[in-house]
Amino acid sequence: MGASQRRKGAAGEREACAVLSQATGEPWERTGSAQRRKGSTLPDVRPVDRESLRDLLHVEVKRGAKPSPTAALRQAEEVCHETQRVPVALTRADRGEWLVTVRFEDLQTVAKAMGEG
Questions:
Q1: Integer Cα distance of 59 and 101 in angstroms
Q2: Which region holds residue 78: left if phi is over 0, alpha if psi is between -120 and 50, else beta?
Q3: For residue range 27-39, what is the model confidence (pLDDT) as tens digits?
Q4: Residue 72 and which of 14, 64, 65, 116 are 20 to 30 A apart at CA?
Q5: Closest-CA residue to 63 (of 22, 14, 8)
Q6: How far apart are the C-alpha atoms of 18 and 79, rounded to whole Å?
Q7: Residue 96 has what DSSP assignment?
Q8: 32 Cβ partners below 8 Å, 6+ apart?
Q9: DSSP secondary-structure letter at 94?
Q10: Both ends of the chain: CA-CA distance in Å?
Q11: Cα 38–chain centre separation
């Protein structure tokens, strides 16, 4: 991955943190360079203060020309087999809006967890 792709990914993660912070009323953060380690099970972003939510969700963020919500969710699912977290994909096409993708079976769990706080 080139430097410009890494910068764009980091910018997308910062945007996602801002959107999630606004939606939940609490701060979110990037996990940063630690997630690039081979075999890392860290999500792209996570809540700063709510450990219960941090332990429940694995959020993958993708931003670009044509990000695939399905591919992002699959990437999150690969890690979730090891961590028992719920996979969530947050994607935004250039000049588009943020989309949240979760499996239908996880929708109630995610909605309830995001509403608690």
A1: 10
A2: alpha
A3: 999 997 655 555 6
A4: 116
A5: 8
A6: 24
A7: S
A8: none
A9: T
A10: 37
A11: 18
- What length is written for the chain? 117
**Distance between CA 31 and CA 37 in Å, rounded?**
11
- Please say whether the dihedral angle defined by the alpha carbons of residues 16, 92, 31 and 46, taken in this order, is positive or negative: positive
Q: In Å, how far are 47, 53, 74, 94, 105 from 26, measured between CA atoms?
A: 7, 11, 27, 26, 25
Could you read off the pLDDT of 4-24 as tens digits, one per residue? 778 888 999 999 999 999 988
Residues 24 and 114 sit within 8 Å (Cβ to Cβ): yes
For tokens 């910018």, name the residue.
Answer: 11
Helix boundaries (H) for 57-96:
69-83
